[in-house]
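User: Fold this, then the next.

Assistant: Folding the first:
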Amino acid sequence: MIETIGDLVLERGGVLRGAELAYVTYGELAPDRDNAVLLTHGYTSSHLFADPAASSDGGWGELVGPGRAIDTDRTFVISSNMLGSSYGSTGPRSIDPASGRAYGPDFPVLTVGDIVAAQRRLIDRLGVRELAAVIGPSYGGFQALAWGVAFPDLVRVLVPVVTAPRTGGALDLDGLRRRLSADPGWNGGRCDAAAILGTMTAVRVETLVRYGMEAVMADRGMGQAERAAALESMARDWARSFDAQSLLVLGAAANEFDVTPLLSRIRAPVLFVLSATDALFPPRLGPTVMAALRAAGVQATYHEIDSRYGHLAPGLDAARWAPVLARFLAPT
């Protein structure tokens, strides 16, 4: 589904005219309109990451549904595609009303705050009075924390997963730009996915390896050659649909994300979840983040997923933390 959320004034200047968000819902909104759970997705995934078909590459299909940890028998789950992403929301592929052509490299600078402000518009239009929870992995965890800071009175609990309250500019966007620019099909960033398919596929293979997909495949009995072929196939499928400009736009927003000075604004209890083998947000971050949350007066609980699956553990090893999540979300 697509919802037009209107003109959106951006934190770094400019206005997105007639902005839209793609989204999907599960379950039913209660008469008092306070049983909604907002799922926030990762950097390169989509609002469909909780669909069963997405579980092969880290999706949350085992966590969302009737009787599951995020129980759609009693909650109304909303999952929206991030502003700036490639799966239906306003982003670099969208038509700029001012020029009549795709924004491409001219898409304005976004912040995580802009992404969250767009989601706020969406839930207002869906008639949601209050969010029972905001839950998300990785970049989705940035959004969960940003929700707690920006709209502390609208959310009852926060579950940021395999994430942190700041990035410290960890993404090498200059290197990514050089790599894309070296592709003959780049054309200054005004190109379709097919023109740079090889480069984007290679970028995705490296990302899947960092995320821990090789361990998943090894546990499925796949040999080295079979794993390499499967990684290539998964990466190519993604590269056919994901816009390189979205990588740059969302990456720039991530690199400046830092809510550590604002944690005292959070009023909701927080369940902070890391994975024991995650190379992106390693468990050594746990004590520092928990200390910062508690120093800010936030009621915070920590859980570490004991999994071989790295950054993908929350979805692909869902059973190892689903009971913890279910208890945290249980009505009191």
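Now the next one, as you asked:
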Amino acid sequence: MSKKTLLWGGGSKAMLAIELFNLKNAIVFDPYIKKFHSKKKIPFFNKFTDLKKIIKMCSKFYICIGNNNGKDRSTIAEMLIKKKMKPISLIHKKSIIHSSVKLGKMLMIMPGAVINPNAQIMDYSIINTSAVIEHDCVLDSGVEIMGSASIAGSCKIKKNSTIGTNATVFPNIIINEHSYIGAGSVIRNNVKKDNIVIGNPAKFLKKNKINKNKINKTILALKNI
């Protein structure tokens, strides 16, 4: 009997993995919710003490953590790889990806997403529904592009940054690490590291501060297995 696939995280990304990508033979783990809501009967665990048992049951995994949590997604994935588990990508058949595009590991690419020639999508990134990544763009690891966002040609989106729904990024722009672009924003200039920007044209709102309490608990639990 083949081993199961671990879906780490019990929110909307896990539901999409199961329902939209028809992922079967899965287990859901999320220590921060009491119940996983799905029409299908999927085994669910929410205690760190269950991790050792879960890892023995699973040979593959996908980290179902989205939004402003790219670093957490990347960190957990790399720790599971060290446990000899294999990351999977979820790439929908109704996405449009040019043959020259370089794809990393553990990606989620949703229906209607378009990725044009010579782009690079690195590990642990998410491209949501109807987002457009134009030619020669480079998306670093842990990036998420929200639905219907448009990234013009030759842009660089650095590690763990998030581009909000319907945002537009002009050509040749650099979005530096851990930045967050608000929904509907128009980016005409480079964005500094750790900045949250909003509006048209986009302006600085505040620093992007990430709560490390959850990921620190997770790291400790995985190290103890």
